[in-house]
Amino acid sequence: MSVTVNIPADMEVVYEYPRSMNKVYTHYCPGCPHGILHRLIAEVIDELGIQDRCIGVAPVGCSVLIYKYFNVDFVEAAHGRAPAMATGIKRTNPDKIVFTYQGDGDMAAIGTAEAIHAANRGERLTTVFVNNAIYGMTGGQMAPTTLPGMVTTSTPMGRDVRLAGYPVPMSEILAQTKGAVYITRQMALDLPSIVKTKKAIKRAFMAQMADLGYSSVEVLSTCNTNWNMSPWDSMVWAKEHMVPTFPLGDFKMTDEVRALKVR
Amino acid sequence: MAKELLKGNVAFAEAAVRNGLQAYFGYPITPQSEALEHLSKRMLELDRVFLQAESEVAAINMVYGAACTGVRVMTSTSGPGFSLMTEGLSYIAGSEVPVVVVNMMRGGPGLGNIQPAQADYALMVHTVGHGDFHAIVLAPANIQELIDMVGLAFDLAEKYRTVVYIAGDGSLGQMMESAELPPMKPLPTERPAWATIGAKDREPNAITSLFLGAEPLEAWNLHLQKKLAQIKENEVRWQEYQTEDADLLMVAYGTVGRICTSVMREARKQGLRVGLLRPQTLWPFPAARLNELAGQVRGILVSEMSAGQMLADVERAVAGKCPVAFHGRLGGVFPMVDELLAELKKLDQEVSK
Ligand SMILES: Cc1ncc(C[n+]2csc(CCOP(=O)(O)OP(=O)(O)O)c2C)c(N)n1
């Protein structure tokens, strides 16, 4: 069912469905932040006017079907290989804007090598890296970012760091590479943080458009389904437990990136 | 163009450049690295894309990304690197983008050695990574054929939107012989309609190998199988040597096929009426012609630098019509002319009993 609303000519449009998003239902669980993050990216693409020269690279993970929700060209990568695929696209099409959207397993376990080397080469790419501390798609196993003591379907007694090591501080690691120009960690757990996350995503895209180097926005997120919590409780839990392990902030921002006027 | 003295690896790399190669992504591995080295200079000279990746896993996924945008792209490697590429190749096959991969095979399993071998046959011919698919596999026997097959590989890859392998071996990559390179072709200026280069004045393109439902994935597979059937119908290539009057047949490809031409000449001098069938495509395999010849000859000798991987395809094609013998050398050892001659004589005696 669709409703047509006629807006009087003297009224200003202050809210619209992003043109870069398709008007379809997503497959995400109720309470999942993926939809919010998709929308932020779509708004940024609209505001920067790059919809017709933007190419997204989908990950393997819960957001594997992201290409169905965006009104932009997309390719589907193998698990963890999005940065390599994006490199192939961008190197052969330097005038296009290329972004990857990756989960923590994709980015910080199976695809660590591809992520670090893309950053280190200073690929003109933008990554939105969604850290929900778990393997959502495969049913809640331990992720590289699972917190110590956290119970998952593959750490039934809680993550034992002697057996399984420690949460991988991916943004801190990426910030060490010379090719990265903007590495930040945000959260999408309440309205103010969502607004800040959007600004960070916009800065990351603008860094690419200014041909400065690699940029990544890590976003602390939730998985209420596999965490066995209500959406509300998962937001509260993430703020209380994830933020101390994954401190928020900019781990790298070059002067050129800082000078970008992000509105 | 005049003939020049060329090393195999440099020859195929330069042939790719002249056939409009727009991007190359690779990772060093002997006995193939001279191709990467040559392209590291040539591609940049010509303002085209060259990148040394952090691994073959990354290289093939860079190739995949570039191929999705409709440019001519390739990579090259040898056994261990090819193993790593199989993941990406399966995705490439499943999403129908054209890609060319050269594998200069070396001795295995494991790290093996850097001597010439043909032991990746099964890996290259019988599947493309996981799932149900076949690449077109071209098997050159000398440097001129290697050069010529590069152009063919790109044309076939683009015609069928598929994966094309060139199956060489370390000796083909390393040796030098005189051959003629093609003239420089201009780069294509257009991109295909399916390319993901930004949804400008059109609906977005999505390139994926994901089909969540069972029926949709079966339908997609049937579509891929139909394409493979077309390839089987149209693209079988082989070369025959003195098969008209032959009553013994050798079957061998690549470098061993070349060795077998000497074996054949020697055998004929000694009174054996020997012919040779040398598959130039390992997939699709020249099975129908082989089956015909199996009805004509008394016996067949297969030789490979492996424990007998193509042998299974030969036996299937022959379907019991005549005896099939095998002589293989492993680990980077060539089958020598005198060895093969002895095997032919043995076969001759056995089938004369
Ligand atoms: C090579 C390979 N190994 C394993 C899988 C199975 N798999 C699919 S998604 C996934 C984990 C995804 O987790 P994450 O990247 O954190 O994303 P999320 O689902 O939580 O959004 C795994 C292990 C796969 N598809 N491919």
How much beta of chain B, percentage-wise?
15-25%
Instruction: Say what the CATH topology of the largest domain in chain B is.
Output: Rossmann fold
Tally of helical segments of chain B: 12
Mean pLDDT metric of chain B = 97
Biggest sheet architecture of chain A: 7 strands, mixed
State the secondary-structure class of chain A: alpha/beta
Radius of gyration of chain A: 18 Å
User: How many structural domains are formed by the residues of chain A?
Assistant: 1
Number of domains of chain B: 2
- Uncertain parts of chain A: none
Q: Looking at this structure, what is the CATH superfamily of the largest domain in chain B?
A: Thiamin diphosphate (ThDP)-binding fold, Pyr/PP domains
Percent helix of chain B = 40-55%
Number of helices of chain A: 10
Question: Would you spell out the secondary-structure blueprint of this structure?
Answer:
The complex is a heterodimer of chains A (263) and B (353).
Chain A: H1 34-48, E1 54-58, E2 73-76, H2 82-92, E3 97-103, H3 104-110, H4 112-120, E4 126-131, E5 134-135, E6 141-142, H5 161-164, H6 170-174, E7 180-187, H7 191-209, E8 214-220, H8 224-227, H9 231-245, E9 249-253, H10 255-259
Parallel strand pairs in A: 1-2, 1-3, 3-4, 4-8, 7-8
Antiparallel strand pairs in A: 5-6, 7-9
Helix pairs in contact in A: 1-7, 3-4
Chain B: E1 3-7, H1 8-18, E2 23-26, H2 33-45, E3 49-52, H3 56-68, E4 73-77, H4 79-94, E5 99-105, H5 121-125, E6 136-138, H6 143-160, E7 163-169, H7 170-174, E8 176-180, E9 206-207, H8 214-234, E10 238-241, E11 248-251, H9 254-269, E12 274-279, E13 281-283, H10 287-296, E14 299-304, H11 310-318, E15 324-328, H12 337-352
Parallel strand pairs in B: 2-3, 2-4, 4-5, 5-7, 6-7, 11-12, 11-14, 14-15
Antiparallel strand pairs in B: 1-8, 6-13, 10-12
Bound molecules: thiamine diphosphate.
